[in-house]
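S1.2 Input.
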Amino acid sequence: MKFSLIALITVAAACAEAAKLTHSQATAKLSAAGVKWTSSGGCSDRNNPKCTSFDQINEATINGAITLKKACACAITITGGTEVGHAGGTYSHANGYKLDVAKATAINNYITNTFTRIADRGDGAAQYKARSGNIYANEGNHWDNTFYNDGN
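S1.3 Output.
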């Protein structure tokens, strides 16, 4: 019985770890779904803050962006991924949970009219929470999206 319980816990822990993607894997999924991305530096180096990198991003985060695009039925453009230069923390850009999305009328309206307004973040950013638990924070010139899972 001990062996079965240990095996079950080990399997459960392995399943709980987020599946990570390379930059190429992530961009292939995004391209196939019609999700665009841009980089102010025209690059994808994770160690350069002017680049937009998806290296070591959670697969659920990429799937969440695709789900958001489909649900919104609008264009979205990712402007930030796992590159350096973002705030740290457990559910951070560096750990693969966050994407920055450019503001545009359609996505702005979708987020603010579909998701529940919750308390402002510590820095004053207005936040909206989806039924899935994903959070969309208005950082002024873009949306800072935290994807805990691939739903919206």
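S1.4 Remarks. The beta strands are 20-21, 36-37, 57-58, 77-80, 98-102, 116-118, 126-129, 135-138, 142-146.
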